[in-house]
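Hey,
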Amino acid sequence: MKIKFFILSFLLFLFSCENIPVSSINLEKTKNIIDDNKKNQVPIKPLEAAIITNTDKNDSNINKEPQKQDDRNPKNNQSYKDAYDIFRSADSLVEKKKYNEAIEKYKKAISIDPNISEIHNNLAQAYESLGKYDDATLEYQKSLSLTPDMIIVYNNIILLKIAQGKYDDAIEYLKKAISVDNTRIGFYKLLLKSYKKIGKYDEFINEMNKMLKENPKNYYVYHVFGFNYFQEKKYDESIEQYRKAISINEKYIEAYKNIGMAYIEKKEYDKALNEFKNTLDIRRDYIDGYLGLGVSFFKLGKYDEAIEYLKQAISLDTKKADGYIDLGTVYGEQQKYNESTIEYQKSILIDPNNPEVYASMAFNYSNLGNYEESISLYKKAISINPNIAYFYFSLGNIYLKQKDYTNKSINYQKACELGIIEACNG
């Protein structure tokens, strides 16, 4: 069997469309062994919980100033302005993780003006940071009673309920959130997750069909159906659902991308290319389109084209690790180990906690004959995630090359415990 290095890069969209990630390239690099069961997982990423401040730029739907209540004019309302000043000072304490002090400040602000929904939301977040979940829930509810259409508050209470394992509560808040704004695919996915957690997938289907009946043009329902089929590795069914979404909105760029990813899983790379090209026809600066083309060309063995598109992805956003990781992987497959390592190092500057990148660099150094650096990097990967079998197996192989049989046996034993049968015989 062969070791497969799976570098999985995920794009996080705050309060926007969460889709099937443009997975980085899967490589078979050595003649050792591994079959990473995570290869085809498409994780649901939670929406980002965030404290509302007057400088929040993460979501265009969040007001940059506290929302006005009824017909009040904050500029002429002294109590409002006094409460808001204390609110800002409390936020500063939260940033310093001084939660108890912040809570007292928030309470003082509320005593001056109890009708500012943002203060209740941020007080809830402070309570949540201290594990006071009942108090947090109460404050989120107060915030929503003041501003029933405040999506970020729904987001935060939903995440709290999911973290508590209270999926029935999460479902009710998710339904309300979708009724307020039905364009946030992340809420649909969390709804899917919550129904599955309580074993009521049929109810999820019924809920989605109800939404379609109320609004036949709600293509996000078809999106989440497609997402679910992708998770279940039913790629033809997934593609069919995304096609339905496109039939409603022919410019729905995420659907084309996700169809492209389904074709990659089906190993139909030419078809994947067409879908990713469709995304660029819609938007020339769509990074996932370039990443998808890079992956597809790599799968077709067209490394020069893969490199070209991956470099274009990087040029569009130099602060994302994905492109560097994939580019490093392509160079590694070409046995350009120094160039590969340079790209991996760039990704680490952005995301220093990806263990697979350290393992891939370790592999490069091993091929360059620098065993000490390889050992150091495998150990770094293990320190980040000690539960990946091939890290130990590969490290054991390096020790074997050095004739360090004691450390070889220690790492083989760990690899064996984690499921690599070949290591059990070493």
